């Protein structure tokens, strides 16, 4: 009851092309996340799906139905905005029920659906309040509740957690994951935060400069990035990229190795270097070192380690976890 | 807040300056009102003195209320002002919404064209307006005044309101679209309540010149049944004799309706409802 097909979607503002031919299939019940740096077109793509922007070209099918000319309210979608976008003059209850009221649903049905959604999000004590009387987290829950009440085929989230503080962000993230399990609805979610993408998604769509770089499950993207961009974007700290020539590797231009796939030792190893900076995070220790063979190298060690600036250390990469990229930055498999 | 960092001397000077300004601004009004309660020779002998039992007189008010149809003049002024404000706000807000919300060819040019009205005084076109009104058979009607005042108020209204409407969150309007609100519903139910303070500002700026205007009532509607208060007061100013009691009393009375309107609008200036809509 909630599939989505995009075929060669293009969107241009004047002569500036923001989306350069997007093809994507989303099956029913999937949680898909669009991720990419700012300005990559992910929000625009979401707006095109919602019908808030018209695509310059291409076809959008929701449940097999072409919706390119259907107004947003009739597409069977609901959207949660970064800025909450609650109606300031309506109570929480009326905020959630407005869409149904506008569609002409009977009062009885509105009542049951609103109370069901408010129970799901524990908003019952706030139903009579106005948005101004709620905290940021509560407001975002109301915005999510407003989407649930519509019982849409597609949920669209536009960076819903960006305005929340760190603790609330984690909590709301769990809430959204739980909702997805309970509602079994198709959700499309835009974020620039790769942690949100990795933790929530069934399928991640990495976008860059208006084009899809790679589509896959979080672990696929982590283990088998299709190109240098995806390899660098997914994973934190960022993957180390080393000129293949320096390592004597033939048949590749760049070699990538994730910081967590490098071992450090004071005695011996492949690459000798000097520690430049150390970050102690408790669970992890991040060591930045300068080696002759590779240049600046980031190493992530689990647990606490007593390295200090200017220590001489040896780094050894896990050869099986190395990624090799060709001259066009594409992965060699 | 800021109080803790300010020395009492500095804030004292600020208050002194503000009080002085208030006195200067209020003095003519004060003078008008006290003299309207005095007998004629007391007005000329001691114009600055407050009315005492010996100089107190209501003769001005008696003249105003007896002579001429002042209640009707008040009604005319009130109708013209209120209806003009209504149209200025309605059409101004609609045009401002279109200019700020929709991308269409010639948007900027249209905005500039509408703003030019701020720079060119409408009185330059008086002769043409009069000819038009004569041709349309609207001379000596309140409609003529309302039309002119609406045109006069629109440029500033559009200019101010379109700036304010640009600040209304796009997400909020989009949320309305997804919930199935029509563009009209978005305009009337989401955007207008959020720009209420700006609407009140525009209303005040529009209201005062209309209420005080003498030019257009004199030219377009000088008939007895369509006189406004400002025009009505003029009949006490003669070429040889001026009935100062009556003029001052009429002006004092004319202050109050506009004061009431001002209080109504300025209450709207207080923000509050907008907080918490979007972050």
UniProtKB/TrEMBL annotation, chain A:
Per the database record, which ranges form the ABC transporter domain? 4-234
Q: Which InterPro entries match?
A: AAA+_ATPase (IPR003593), ABC_transporter-like_ATP-bd (IPR003439), ABC_transporter-like_CS (IPR017871), ABC_transpr_MalK-like (IPR015855), ABC_transpr_MalK/UgpC-like (IPR047641), Mo/tungstate-bd_C_term_dom (IPR008995), NA-bd_OB-fold (IPR012340), P-loop_NTPase (IPR027417)
> What terms describe the molecular function in GO for this protein?
ABC-type maltose transporter activity; ATP binding; ATP hydrolysis activity
Task: Please give the Pfam families that the UniProt record associates with this protein.
Answer: ABC_tran, TOBE_2
Q: What is its main location?
A: membrane
Highest taxon in the source lineage = Bacteria
Topological relation to the membrane, as annotated: Peripheral membrane protein
GO cellular component entries: ATP-binding cassette (ABC) transporter complex, substrate-binding subunit-containing; maltose transport complex
Compartmental location:
Cell inner membrane
Give the keywords, sorted.
Answer: ATP-binding, Nucleotide-binding, Transport
Q: Which family does it belong to?
A: Belongs to the ABC transporter superfamily.
PANTHER family the UniProt entry points to: MALTODEXTRIN IMPORT ATP-BINDING PROTEIN MSMX, MALTOSE_MALTODEXTRIN IMPORT ATP-BINDING PROTEIN MALK
What is the official name of this protein in its record?
A: Sugar ABC transporter ATP-binding protein
Automatic annotation (TrEMBL), chain B:
Please list every transmembrane segment annotated in the UniProt record, as residue ranges.
12-34, 78-99, 111-130, 142-165, 186-211, 244-265
**Can the keyword Repeat be found in this entry's annotation?**
no
One GO cellular component term noted in the UniProt record for this chain: plasma membrane
Identify its membrane topology class: Multi-pass membrane protein
Protein's cellular compartments: Cell membrane
Q: Which InterPro entries match?
A: MetI-like, MetI-like_sf
Identify the residues that the record assigns to the ABC transmembrane type-1 domain, covering every copy: 74-265
| Keywords, sorted A to Z | Cell membrane, Membrane, Transmembrane, Transmembrane helix, Transport
Pfam families named in the record: BPD_transp_1
A GO biological process this protein is involved in? transmembrane transport
The chain's coiled-coil residues are: none
CDD domains with a match to the protein in the record: TM_PBP2
What's the chief localization of this chain? Answer: membrane
Q: Which PANTHER family match?
A: ABC TRANSPORTER PERMEASE PROTEIN MG189-RELATED, ABC TRANSPORTER PERMEASE PROTEIN MG189-RELATED-RELATED
Please report which protein family the annotation says this sequence is part of. Belongs to the binding-protein-dependent transport system permease family.
Descriptive protein name: Carbohydrate ABC transporter permease
């Amino acid at each position: 009851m909630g599939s989505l097909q995009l075929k060669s979607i293009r969107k241009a503002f004047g002569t500036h092309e923001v989306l350069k031919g997007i093809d994507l299939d989303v099956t029913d019940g999937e949680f898909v996340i669009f991720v990419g740096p700012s300005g990559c077109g992910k929000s625009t793509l979401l707006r095109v799906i919602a019908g808030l922007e018209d695509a310059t070209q291409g076809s959008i099918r929701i449940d097999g139905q072409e919706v390119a000319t259907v107004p947003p309210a009739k597409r069977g979608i609901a959207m949660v905005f970064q800025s909450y976008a609650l109606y300031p003059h309506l109570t929480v209850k009326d905020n959630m029920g407005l869409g149904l009221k506008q569609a002409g649903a009977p009062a009885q049905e509105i009542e049951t659906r609103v109370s069901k959604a408010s129970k799901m999000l524990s908003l019952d004590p706030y139903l009579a309040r106005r948005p101004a009387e709620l905290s940021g987290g509560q407001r975002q829950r109301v915005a999510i509740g407003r989407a649930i009440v519509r019982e849409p085929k597609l949920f669209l989230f536009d960076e819903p957690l960006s305005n929340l503080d760190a603790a609330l962000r984690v909590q709301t993230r769990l809430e959204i994951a739980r909702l997805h399990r309970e509602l079994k609805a198709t959700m499309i979610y835009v974020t620039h935060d790769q942690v949100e993408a990795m933790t929530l998604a069934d399928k991640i769509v990495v976008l860059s400069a208006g084009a899809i770089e790679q589509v896959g499950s979080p672990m696929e993207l982590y283990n088998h990035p299709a190109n240098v961009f995806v390899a660098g974007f997914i994973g934190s700290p960022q993957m180390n990229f080393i000129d293949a020539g320096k390592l004597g590797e033939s048949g590749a231009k760049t070699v990538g190795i994730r910081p967590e796939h490098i071992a450090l030792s004071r005695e011996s190893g492949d690459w000798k270097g000097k520690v430049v900076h150390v970050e102690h995070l408790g669970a992890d220790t991040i060591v930045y070192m300068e080696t002759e063979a590779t240049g600046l190298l980031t190493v992530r060690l689990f647990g606490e380690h007593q390295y200090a600036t200017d220590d001489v250390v040896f780094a050894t990469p896990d050869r099986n976890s190395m990624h090799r990229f060709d001259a066009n930055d594409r992965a060699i498999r | 807040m800021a109080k803790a960092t300010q020395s009492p001397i500095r804030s004292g000077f600020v208050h002194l300056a503000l009080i002085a300004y208030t006195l200067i601004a209020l003095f003519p009004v004060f003078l008008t009102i006290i003299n309207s309660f005095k007998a004629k020779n007391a007005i000329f002998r001691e114009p600055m003195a407050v009315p005492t039992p010996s100089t107190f007189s209501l003769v001005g008010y008696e003249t105003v209320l007896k002579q001429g149809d002042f209640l009707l003049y008040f009604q005319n002024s009130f109708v013209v002002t209120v209806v003009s404000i209504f149209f200025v706000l309605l059409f101004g807000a609609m045009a401002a919404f279109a200019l700020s919300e929709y991308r269409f060819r010639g948007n900027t040019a249209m905005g500039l064209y509408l703003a030019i009205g701020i720079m060119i005084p409408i009185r330059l076109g008086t002769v043409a307006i009069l000819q038009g009104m004569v041709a349309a058979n609207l001379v000596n009607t309140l409609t003529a005044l309302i039309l002119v005042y609406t045109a006069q108020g629109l440029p500033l209204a559009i200019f101010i309101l379109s700036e304010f409407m640009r600040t209304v969150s796009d997400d909020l309007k989009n949320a309305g679209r997804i919930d199935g609100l029509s563009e009209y519903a978005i305009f009337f139910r989401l955007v207008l309540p959020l720009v209420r303070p700006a609407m009140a500002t525009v209303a005040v700026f529009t209201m005062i010149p209309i209420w005080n205007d003498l030019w257009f009532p004199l030219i377009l509607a000088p008939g007895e049944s369509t006189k406004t208060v400002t025009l009505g007061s003029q009949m006490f100013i003669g070429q040889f004799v001026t009935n100062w009691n009556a003029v001052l009393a009429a002006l004092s009375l004319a202050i109050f309706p506009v004061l009431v309107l001002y209080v109504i609008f300025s209450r709207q200036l207080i923000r509050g409802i907008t907080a918490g809509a979007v972050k």
